[in-house]
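Human:
Care to share another protein and its fold?

Assistant:
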Amino acid sequence: MNLTEAELERLAILAEECAEVQQIIGKIIRHGYESYHPDDLDKTPNRKHLERELGDLAFIINFCHENEDVNLLNLTAHIERKSQTIQQYLHHNVVTPTE
């Protein structure tokens, strides 16, 4: 396996953050962006939860880059590639390729 404890920890955090993003996406699909948990006294909408979870995910992606788990140039190249190939699978959105 040859992973350090630090690498394992970062991967565990990455997996957790991905799962949390998936969870809020499921809630938005079922209840909408502006819905909120009935027990939430602040009535925080799902959109805000999504923003928080995506921010947490962006943090750990950047943290993995800072620790050389992933290469930022490679990530950027994959973002560009995806922006060019995703359109054929979209029915309701238009992607402007990055430059």
Notes: The radius of gyration is 17 Å. The chain has a mean pLDDT of 96. Helices lie at 5-31, 46-66, 72-85.
